[in-house]
Design a protein that fits this description.
3 helices; 6-stranded mixed beta sheet; 129 residues
Length: 129
């Protein structure tokens, strides 16, 4: 699954995880603005959750390739990145989103983590979903 934003699913022992996830965020906007002003609809084929847009991409890429691929979906102030999960509710939403596209949930999914064997600079690593 490719969720653009910064998500965290890790699969120990894999050189790269073949599916990705993407999440669009409101980059550059003030967090103090009322939600009604900040609200927007998601582009076609994306699913909204808590003010972010998510999309599943069943494509095989390394973490770095998936990160760049997600960035290609940025639109104006909406920046697309590998998704990050920040709550149990968001975790359930992402699980349901992936499962609705690929029943049985694929084992390997890239979100906002990396493979230090393939990336030379340090990134934050997140724990398994």
């Amino acid at each position: 699954m490719q969720l653009c934003d910064k998500n965290r699913i890790s699969s120990p022992g894999c050189d790269f995880c073949p599916l990705h996830s993407a999440k669009l965020t409101r980059g550059g906007m003030s967090p103090t603005l009322p939600e009604s002003i900040l609200s927007y609809s998601c582009p076609l084929f994306w699913t909204e959750y808590e003010g972010h847009c998510y999309r599943y991409f069943p494509v095989n890429k390394t973490w770095a390739e998936a990160d760049l691929y997600c960035a290609e979906f940025s639109i104006g102030l909406k920046s697309a990145k590998l998704a990050s999960i920040h709550s149990w509710e968001e975790n359930v939403f992402v699980y349901d989103l992936v499962n609705s596209r690929v029943p049985g949930i694929p084992m390997d999914i890239w979100m906002g983590l990396n493979d230090l064997r393939q990336v030379s600079h340090l990134h934050l690593l997140w724990g398994p979903l």
